[in-house]
Design a protein that fits this description.
single chain, about 35% strand, 5-stranded antiparallel β-sheet
Length: about 90
């Protein structure tokens, strides 16, 4: 049986690094601390957003793979023209 990638969490982060919205999707919603754990992961990805936004040669708003958390989870990112950031944790 093959497993297909699925979205575990979506975070929308404001231009001042403030979390605007965090959604956690099943099966990760079954653990009581899931929201907190994914909030920490999204917060950890902000440094990578900041580092890549300094790149003056960047033309695309799609930042692609930001980091691999472990053998299951990875974080992908996209930044809008207004500075809002979307981080998607893929399981």
């Amino acid at each position: 049986m093959t497993t297909h990638p699925s979205i575990a969490c979506i975070g929308i982060i404001g231009k001042h690094d403030n979390p605007l919205h965090v959604s956690v999707f099943p099966p990760h919603t079954s653990t009581p601390r899931a929201h907190l754990e994914f909030s920490f992961l999204l917060n950890a990805s902000l440094d990578i957003f900041e580092q890549r936004s300094r790149d003056r040669n960047r033309v695309d708003q799609d930042l692609g793979l930001l980091q691999v958390v472990n053998e299951r989870l990875s974080i992908w990112g996209w930044e809008t023209g207004t500075g809002a950031r979307f981080a998607i944790v893929v399981d």
